[in-house]
Amino acid sequence: MASKLLRAVVLGPPGSGKGTVCERIARSFGLQHLSSGQFLRESLGGGGVWLHPCCFPASHSNFCPAACPGFPRTLGQAKALDGICELDLVISLNIPFETLKDRLSARWVHPASGRVYNMDFNPPHTQGVDDLTGEPLVQREDDRPEAVAARLRKYKDAAKPVIELYKSRGILHSFSGTETNKIWPYVYTLLSSKIPPVLSDEEH
């Protein structure tokens, strides 16, 4: 007999730590982590069935359980998602915009691998180069200080109706703070009431 599925997504502005939270959810609850970008690439290249990984199973016997960060991004996407899977839980990360601006502006990447560094709290061993290859790091155009404020404003405008929609359905759970490590225990406690964890909070 198939177990009941708990369908959930993680929302938040650029730089809010969606990917980090989803990686921790995946480890702590025995799930697979796929980003919304991966979903889109796999959708375009592999038959289009890309929303199934948004399902968190209540037990671990189901196929392809995963954490789904950053989707839906707009009200149109939220309504499209409604036609495919009814969400049980939406996690919204609320980080002060000043914190996000500082965090994004300090972010540099290794283009070939996608490895991300933050000059404030996760710098490379040698300034300006990737730890593994020694190749130069670059700053994405949309992470430059002048572009960050525009990205955050755009997110706020697009996300407001999505958040209001899920709030009206009673499935929105918002978590506020400036550090993922301080937000995470509350996310873990919420999900532990829905899904049996495979790791304790301390083991994540």
From TrEMBL:
Pfam families documented for this protein: AAA_17, ADK, ADK_lid
Domain Adenylate kinase active site lid: from-to ranges: 107-142
GO molecular function list: AMP kinase activity; ATP binding
Key words, A-Z: Kinase, Nucleotide-binding, Transferase
Matching InterPro entries: Adenylat/UMP-CMP_kin, Adenylate_kinase_lid-dom, P-loop_NTPase
Highest taxon listed in the record's lineage: Eukaryota
Coiled coil (residue ranges): none
HAMAP family referenced in this protein's UniProt entry, alphabetically: Adenylate_kinase_Adk
Family: Belongs to the adenylate kinase family.
Name assigned to this protein: KAD4 kinase
Organism of this sequence: Edolisoma coerulescens
